[in-house]
Design goal:
By secondary structure, the chain is mainly α. It has a two-stranded parallel sheet with strand order 1-2. Helix 2 packs parallel to helix 5 and helix 3 packs antiparallel against helix 4. The protein is rod-shaped and about 90 Å long.
Length: 196
C-alpha cells in the first residue's frame, strides 16, 4: 500500500513537472502501454497462436465427451436391462454387474475429462503469461531505447489506473505522447520476426 501511495505521489510530481516545462523542453513523456500492447503485431500473433491451441484442445475434448456419452448410453441400456422382468434373475444380475462396471468406467471418464480441462487450462494460462511477459519486455526495451535516443528522462504509462480504478493521468499534451512512435518502431520488424 505504501508503495502505491509513493508511486502516486511520484507520478503526480512528474506530471506537475512536465506541466511546468514547455513541451519542447520537457524530459518527461507519456506512452499508452495498453494501446501499444494491443497494436503490436506480436500481440496479435500470440493471440492467434493461443486461439489455435485452444481449438486443438477443444477438438481433443470433444472426442473425450463423445466417448463419455457412449459410456453413458451403454450404462443406461444395461441399467434398464437389469430391471427387465422378462429376463431371468441370473440375466438381470449379470446386467446389474455389467451396469456397475460401466458406471465405474463412466466415473473414471468424467475424472479424466475434468483433469484434462484443468491441465489444458493451466497450460494455456502459463503460455499466455509467458508470451505476454516476453511482449511487455520487448515493448519496455523499445521504449527505453527510444527515450534514450531522444534524451527523455522519464516515460510514464498514460493508460495506468490507480488502485481505485481511476486513470492516474488526467491530462497530457499530445506533443508529449510517444505512443505512435513506439508502435511504429515495434512494428518495423513485422515481416522478419516470429513469435515463440
Amino acid at each position: 500500500m505504501k508503495k502505491a501511495v509513493r508511486w502516486m505521489i511520484w507520478t503526480a510530481a512528474l506530471v506537475g513537472l512536465a506541466g511546468a516545462i514547455p513541451a519542447a523542453e520537457s524530459q518527461v513523456v507519456f506512452v499508452s502501454m495498453e494501446r501499444t500492447f494491443a497494436e503490436f503485431y506480436k500481440t496479435k500473433l500470440a493471440d492467434e497462436q493461443l486461439k489455435k491451441q485452444a481449438e486443438e484442445f477443444n477438438t481433443e475434448r470433444k472426442k473425450l465427451t463423445t466417448d463419455l456419452e457412449k459410456f453413458q448410453e451403454e450404462f443406461n441400456v444395461l441399467r434398464e436391462e437389469s430391471q427387465d422382468v422378462a429376463l431371468s434373475e441370473d440375466a438381470r444380475a449379470q446386467k446389474r454387474n455389467a451396469a456397475e462396471e460401466k458406471l465405474v468406467e463412466l466415473r473414471d471418464m468424467e475424472t479424466r475429462i475434468r483433469r484434462f480441462d484443468e491441465a489444458r487450462q493451466k497450460q494455456l494460462d502459463d503460455q499466455s503469461r509467458r508470451m505476454r511477459k516476453r511482449i511487455v519486455e520487448e515493448i519496455r526495451a523499445t521504449i527505453q531505447t527510444y527515450a534514450r535516443t531522444q534524451g527523455y528522462r522519464a516515460v510514464l504509462d498514460s493508460s495506468a489506473m490507480s488502485l481505485n480504478g481511476v486513470e492516474t493521468l488526467l491530462y497530457t499534451d499530445v506533443k508529449g505522447d510517444i505512443t505512435d512512435a513506439v508502435i511504429e518502431m515495434l512494428n518495423k520488424t513485422k515481416d522478419t520476426a516470429v513469435v515463440e
